[in-house]
Here is the input.
Amino acid sequence: MTFKRSALGLIAAAAIVAPTIGAAQAAQDGIYIPLLTYRTGPFADSGTPIANGLNDYFQLLNTRDGGINGVKLIVEECETGYKTDVGVECYERTKTKGAVVYNPYSTGITNAIIPKTPDDKIPVLSMGYGLTPAADGRVFPWVFNMPTTYWSQASVFVKYVAQQEGGFDKLKGKKIGLIHLDHPYGKEPIPTLQKLAGMYGFEFVTYPVPPKTMQDQRSTWEKIDDDAPDWLFMWGWGAMNPTAIKGAIDVDYPMDHFIGVWWSGNESDVRDSGKKAEGYLAGEFHGVGDDWPLFDEIRKYVIGKSPSQTPESMLGETLYNRGIMNAVIVAEAIRTAMGKFGNKVINGEEMRWGLENINLTAARLKELGLEGFTIPIRVSCEDHEGNHPVYLKRWDGSKWVKHSDWISPMRNVVRPLIEAEAKKLAEERHLPIRECK
Amino acid sequence: MIYREAGQFKTSYAADQAIFPILQDRIAVAIMMVVALVVIPMFGSDYFLEIIMINVLFFSLAAIGLNLLTGYTGQISLGTGGFMAVGAVSSYKMAILFPDLNIILIFLLSGLFAAAVGILFGLPSLRIKGFYLAVATLAAQFFLDWLFLRVDWFTNASTAIEGVPRSLFGVTITGPAATPVAKYYVALGFVLVFALIAKNLVRSQVGRAWMAIRDMDIAAEIIGIRPLRTKLLAFAISSFYCGIAGSLMLFLFYDSAEPDLFDINLSFKVLFMIIIGGLGSILGSFLGAAFIVTIPVILTNAPDLLGLPISSELAKHLEFMIFGALIIFFLIVEPHGLARLWQIAKEKLRQWPFPY
Amino acid sequence: MEAVGLDVLTWMVDFLSGLFVDPFFAVARRPDKLVQILIQGVSAGVMYSLIALGFVLIFKASGVFNFAQGIMVVFAGLSVVVLIEAGVPAILAIAGAVVVMIVMAFAIERLVLRPLVNQDGIILFMATIGLAFFLEGFGQIIFGADPKPVPVDALMIPDGKIKVLGGLLGKPVRIYELDLTAAGFGALMVAAIIVFLNRTKIGRALRAVADDNQAALSVGIPLRTIWVLVWSLAGIVAIFAGVMWGAQSQAGFSLAVLALKALPVLILGGFTSVPGAIIGGTIIGVGEKLGEFYWRGVMGDGVEQWLGYVIALIVLLVRPQGLFGEKIIERI
Here is the structure.
């Protein structure tokens, strides 16, 4: 019993100490970047390469250049497990340490922290995910979803389908399906696709996959087989993706008519199915593979050196590259902010300015050792998305290859939808609308 | 010595029936009130107020609700998350539809909606008992999860429901712009009032009927307690508490939440609270909520505080392990919960420093 | 007011015809689909039964409602997969997983069950949830958090598909070899368990413990050995379930939630009945797949998330102890 008693005492002591946790520790000696990552839980498969990419690029800047313009970056991971409540706890814990930007990598967490950002004055960079209407910078000045959003991407997919079918007029009477995670993230593209269905006269069907049972999709694929949609889009994440690819193979759905969102296009999603998944398409907004000088630098300075946890084979994987791209945008925004506010530890407000005025040109990408890795990126006061193009890549049975050209989204359709939805949210939440000159 | 009730005589029935009949208890409660009402809001950091205190408060409310049903009436329910979702969604819906309605009234009404749903899903309890009932209440959980996800009307066709900003007496008390202190006071107010009501409820005829049903339903029926009415009343009141807890959770903590946040894990969390805290104890509900809320927070922060150089990933895994092990440990040490530990401590204090 | 009444009436008619009439038209249109869905339902039911079986064995012998069964399935499946990945031959990998599960059974008996002996059911239930948390953290440290593909080739599980009845139904019906394997091995396993319970000495001892553990103790049946035995047995069932579930997609920790699918099977079949788990699994599997497919028009997608529970609930209202559960006798 004595052991039990002393253990009880310890726990009681811990409970008393607990309230002291969370005291603000301002990071004075560097720019503090918290990363809400998930290397655990059902979505760890997708979360780990992203976390590694983000970490490695910041680590490279620190070890090779001594930070950005001489200011060190302090990077801290907070493990969310893709759970919203844990993400909120992470946010509250890290914001007092002088966080300059958040990259939540979960639409649920993004939604939960967006309302808090104006009061905390910390921007959110949800790169290609999150709340699409937040692309309206007048209503959501603190949220950035460059280079492009789900709605833009959905319009790109429809455009691609029209190209393949031989024109928008051929879409009439066609049937386009969407298999999606039944979660805020997966439901994001539905409004745009409904709108486009109305415009071009195609039939739009959804196939939701509940997150809890995403590894058992048999009934979903029977429905798809019954409806036989001409084209099928997928908004999936984590273990849903490989299961869906297997499902498509099971019912013999034509792979070259199956297009995944950029979050359903990782190597781990298709690798198990290998040759059988040949022809599967996915959206993308950055390069695939590791054919850039930057990756050699990462090999030289970062791989194998703590805290980096990246196995060398991960370099060039889709989601690893996405982490790199995210980190590049953050670093370039910090540089932009420093150009105006001086080479010092910047704060969230200055970071927001930096993100809004970012200008990632082709020349700059070349300097970074990433020539042609992605398209030049600019956003504006009212447009936090930037209307950037997307391309499609194709799984050739063993690796991803670039399949289509860069395709521009249908801005004339998407932008009014974004503005209308942003206006509705502004009214519901009593958000002020700022003027953009 | 410290805790001796000898010499405290009651001269009236009212004094005999007081909630805290012993002077020392009254002093302790008064000190706790001062701490809760003055000290914590004055000295607590934002993080402490938002992540720990507000969470503890609304979870206490949910735990009291579930305790009335499971601890006092003996009906195991795993539908708590679903009933909390009813509260959250209905308060969001009312706040959007009736912008002029007082927010406190909205919270109370959302509890009524949850109570109605609770009665509906409580009906099977008349025939089904024990674990069979527990699994049957899961039907409520999964059905409600599905309903709020599938029917757009509940969420206004957006992907998340929001705690819209509202103010009371000119102070913003909900939504992101409200200060943690304001939110804390709202949560505290609700919890104090409803804890008091619950405490009195279980001492009343209703509470005694519940306990009779719990201890042996057939015997209770024979002495004239109607099982139908008693059980359904327990379901209704329990869900009422859970519903309010759900709307507080949305309006005071998340600000914006997808409905599937109120999933089965939430049900388990609240059930944990009452079991760790103590079945059939209002105090236990508070202790259990505090325990379940603070342990993960302590564990997440521990590596940082102790300066342990472990990755966030390993820390998370260890957190799971320690949390699970702690639950088993507490169940082994004291299966009747923290409230029972407190009782034992009181016994000890009574004789301290000269135990016989 | 009248217009509203009419609206409601039309809606009701639409809804009811969607529930009870439209499905028959759908069947007439694609008879092959009905067969396909039935097959799918049965194979889903087999999978549910495999998990439910583990629950039943443990509940029967120790009265513990073992919520950790789901995570045990993951643990067992991953043990096999990781061992094969490490280059161990399939047979040895399975043997290794059996050892892992037996060690786990010993540890659980010593550290969790023994100190909690004679506690209320709900306390034991909670302890198994704590156990599930522990195993989830522990397992992710050992195996890594990422889901792993099950090496079906190494395990010699066929994963192709057969198309049958094409001539009769217009379109062929697919049968997956994976399902056939699961059903075949599942049947063997159930038969073995039934023989074990009814024909061997240990099996009889086990049933004696399930009936009345005080009486069993007093005639000299070692309670602890029996507990270790059933937990090991449940662990071995979990190996099979883990590999089969994993082969359908991937073996990973997200599979643990699928254990919730086994709960309606349990209440339908009765907590204490092995045949109940099998028949209950089939009823739930077929019922929810049919509902999901044919009620999609009126109810939307995802009906299968709760339909199993509703089916079980309806059965419970008639038979409160489930289809095959032991009759609950109340004594005053």
